């Protein structure tokens, strides 16, 4: 095994920093957190085929409802609801237990 000298080590570190990092596509899975009676983020822009998971971080139940599109059961603390968006469009949603809680998913 060859040992790198300082110059070679510096070049290797610089090259590693400059190389693009390969990551999973952000559009494959997205998350929305329910915390302090708010959907966070309140709006997502995603591509068709993206799966969104809502997680309730509050200590009381919440729901995720988009009229005629999807409806979760009441989510207790740390419960999750997942939905895959197969059609483009705007999906307004809310908590049926606390209707002032609203969010939007924009699917391209």
Descriptive tags:
38% strand, globular, mainly beta, 4-stranded mixed β-sheet, 1 helix, 3-stranded mixed β-sheet, 108 residues
Describe the structure.
12% of the residues lie in helices and 38% in strands. The chain has 108 residues and is mainly β. The strands form three sheets. Strands 2-1-4-7 form a four-stranded mixed beta sheet, with no helix packed on it. The protein has a three-stranded mixed beta sheet with strand order 3-9-8, with no helix packed on it. Strands 5-6 form a two-stranded antiparallel sheet. It is globular, with a radius of gyration of 21 Å. It starts with 5 loop residues before the first helix and ends with a strand. Mean pLDDT is 84; it is low at 9-27.
Q: Can you give me a brief rundown of this structure?
A:
The chain has 108 residues and is mainly beta.
């Amino acid at each position: 095994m060859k040992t790198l000298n300082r110059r070679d080590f510096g070049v290797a570190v610089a090259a590693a920093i400059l190389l693009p990092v390969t990551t999973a596509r952000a559009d494959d899975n997205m998350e929305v957190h329910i915390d302090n009676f708010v959907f966070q983020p309140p709006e997502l822009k995603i591509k068709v085929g993206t799966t969104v998971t809502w997680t309730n971080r509050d200590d009381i139940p919440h729901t995720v409802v988009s009229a005629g599109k999807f409806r979760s059961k009441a989510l207790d603390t740390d419960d999750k609801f997942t939905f895959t968006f197969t059609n483009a469009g705007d999906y307004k949603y809310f908590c049926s237990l606390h209707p002032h809680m609203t969010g939007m998913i924009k699917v391209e």
